[in-house]
């Protein structure tokens, strides 16, 4: 397995932890899910400067080393894993998990339960499937580096997620919109735009 693919698999494995959000919504309720996502978002925002600014991390590690060197060793192992899966634009910019948490907060707050569950699940699972299938089996490449195989993997996984929740019409609409958003990587980040666009599309098409 090449290094690029290994890093992508590690990134997507971490990304799949986003399925905790729809799982919580199914097992608990809207209020608990909102509290969980809002708390996660707040923690991510507080910790973000330490991820970006190496000097801050070094200062903290220097103090911790005097108290417990083993903790510092653990932090440095975590740092290496994080750097291994970071995209280039995330090194000095906002990380994907912040965009993901913010989008989940918006989707759970503003949309109905089934729409929110569908949108977050599709954005999580569809993105992972597109990347894994695209990296391994992508033979028909487009100019942006995405592949036909990866896009089809996203579309089919989205279809399978949305259909039992909202029916065939909305499944086709949501899967198509999600596939296009993932393909074009709409700003500010696809971890944000995918969830929000899929949820909005499902809501609009439900009115037709």
Automatic annotation (TrEMBL):
Q: Give the first-level EC class, as a single word.
A: transferase
- Which keywords accompany this UniProt record? Membrane, Nucleotidyltransferase, Transferase, Transmembrane, Transmembrane helix
GO molecular function annotations of the record:
ATP-dependent diacylglycerol kinase activity; phosphatidate cytidylyltransferase activity
Membrane spanning segments where? 12-28, 34-53, 92-111, 117-134, 154-180
Which EC number(s) does UniProt give? 2.7.7.41
- Source superkingdom: Archaea
- InterPro entries reported in the protein's UniProt record: Dgk1-like (IPR037997)
**Name of the protein in its database record:** Phosphatidate cytidylyltransferase (CdsA)
Species name for this entry?
Thermococcus gammatolerans (strain DSM 15229 / JCM 11827 / EJ3)
């Amino acid at each position: 397995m090449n290094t690029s693919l290994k890093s992508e698999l590690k990134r997507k494995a971490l990304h799949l932890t986003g399925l905790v959000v729809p799982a919580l919504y199914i097992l608990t309720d809207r209020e608990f899910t909102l509290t969980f996502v809002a708390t996660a978002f707040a923690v991510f925002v507080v910790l973000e400067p330490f991820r970006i600014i190496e000097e801050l991390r070094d200062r903290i590690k220097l103090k911790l080393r005097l108290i417990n060197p083993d903790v510092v060793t653990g932090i440095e192992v975590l740092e290496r894993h994080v750097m291994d899966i970071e995209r280039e634009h995330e090194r000095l910019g906002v990380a994907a998990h912040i965009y993901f948490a913010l989008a989940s907060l918006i989707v759970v707050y503003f949309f109905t339960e089934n729409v929110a569950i569908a949108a977050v699940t599709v954005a999580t699972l569809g993105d992972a499937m597109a990347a894994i299938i695209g990296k391994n089996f992508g033979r028909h490449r487009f100019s942006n580096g995405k592949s036909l195989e990866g896009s089809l993997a996203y579309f089919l996984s989205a279809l399978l997620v949305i259909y039992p929740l909202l029916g065939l019409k909305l499944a086709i609409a949501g899967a198509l919109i999600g596939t296009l958003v993932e393909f074009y990587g709409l700003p500010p980040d696809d971890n944000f735009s995918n969830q929000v666009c899929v949820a909005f599309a499902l809501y609009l098409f439900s009115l037709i």
